[in-house]
Amino acid sequence: MRIYLDVCCLSRPFDDRGQDRVRLESEAVLTIISHAQTSKWRLLTSEVVDIEISKIPDIDKKQKIEMLSTVLHQSIAVDNNIEKRADELEKIGFKPFDAMHIACAEKGKVDVLLTTDDNFIRKAFHTKNTLKVTVKNPVVWLMEVLKK
Description:
CATH superfamily: 5'-nuclease
Low-confidence stretches: none
Order of helices and strands: EHHEHHEHHEHEH
Radius of gyration: 14 Å
CATH topology: Rossmann fold
Oligomer: single chain
Shape: globular
Strand content: 5-15%
CATH architecture: 3-Layer(aba) Sandwich
């Protein structure tokens, strides 16, 4: 199983857990990361994740996310094909970073790209026939996988 975590997922364990949804998503992300340490799940990242993390203004949170991201197994380098694909995805309505995450995930041949961004998930669902990767919320995805 090849899993790509976007920055929303990597950030979630460090968000305010006062809301039930945030707490559930935090636990799901940490469970996925933990499971990847002891199973055949591979966690992928990309240069795009590194760039997005570097833009986080809260220094303490940025350092925690950088530390968490060290458990990711493989990094996908951005190339011309990824940039071209991201441009195509932007033209159909994806935000620039989301388009880059999808393009990287597609290049990495991942099974799922996980995000906690509802708008990203909704857009991916409505354009799923043009994507080569499934985009899901970590809680939803983990529940589906654990049922099997």
